[in-house]
Amino acid sequence: MxxxxxxxxxxxxxxxxxxxxxxxxxxxxxxxxxxxxxxRLVRRxxxxxxxxxxxxxxxxILDIGSGSCDIPLAVIRWARSCGIPIHFTCLELAGHAxxxxxxxxxxAGNPPVKLLQEDAFTHQPVEPYDYALTSMCFHHFSxxxxxxxxxxxxxxxxxxxxxxxxxxxxxASLAARLLLAATDAPEGVRHDALLSIRRGFKIDELRTLxxxxxxxxxxxxxxxxxxxxxxxxxKQGEKS
Length: 240
Hints:
Elements: H1 19-35, H2 38-49, E1 59-64, H3 70-82, E2 86-91, H4 95-107, E3 113-116, E4 129-135, H5 143-153, E5 157-166, H6 170-182, H7 187-198, H8 203-210, E6 216-223, E7 227-234
Parallel strand pairs: 1-2, 1-4, 2-3, 4-5
Antiparallel strand pairs: 5-7, 6-7
Helix pairs in contact: 2-3, 6-7
GO molecular function: methyltransferase activity
Domain Methyltransferase: 61-157
Protein name: Type 12 methyltransferase
C-alpha cells in the first residue's frame, strides 16, 4: 500500500463534493497546517530566501492550490511583523474552496491577496513572481503533471519554489488515524486524509523525480510531522 503513490481520487476533488464535507475538510487542513508544521515550513522558507534582500517592492508570491487561504493569511501576518512587504497571488480551481477563501479574506480585512479561480497549468501572469509555493497540493498531481507544471513555472518564477507536502509511510498513516479520531472528523475527511498520505511522497522518490528537470537545483528534506520540504531553484538566464 505504501510502496508506490496511490492514484485514487479524493472526495474533495470531485466536482459534486458536498459543501459541508468541503468545509469540514478545510477546517481539518487548517488545524494540521497550524499545529503540525505547514505554516512554519513556509515561513522558514521565505525567511531564508529573503534574509539578504533589501528591495522595497513587495515580494510577489504565487501560491498554488491555496484552499481556504489559511497559509497565505498566516504568512502575511508574520511578514508584517517582520517588516517584509509581500503580495500573494493565490490559485485555486475548486469553487467550494474559493467561496471559503473569499470569506476568510473579507474577515481578514482584505489583505494583499489576489485570489484567482484558475488552473495552475494554464495560468499566465502579466509580471513574473519572485517565489512560488504549494502546500499539500502536489500529491494531487501525477508525476508527469508535476514535471509539466514545474517546467511552466520556470518561465515566470524568478527564484525558487517550495513544495510543502506529505511524506508517505505507515507511521504517518497511523499518526493521522489518531488525530482524526481525536478530532472526531467526519468519515469523508477521514477518507481523504488517509488517501492523501498514500498519494504523498518518499524523500528519495521526490528527489529523483525533480532531478529530471534541466537547469535547476533541487533540495528535498524531511520535515516534522511527516512532511516533506522540497526546494526547486530555477537558474537565472537558463529558462526555456
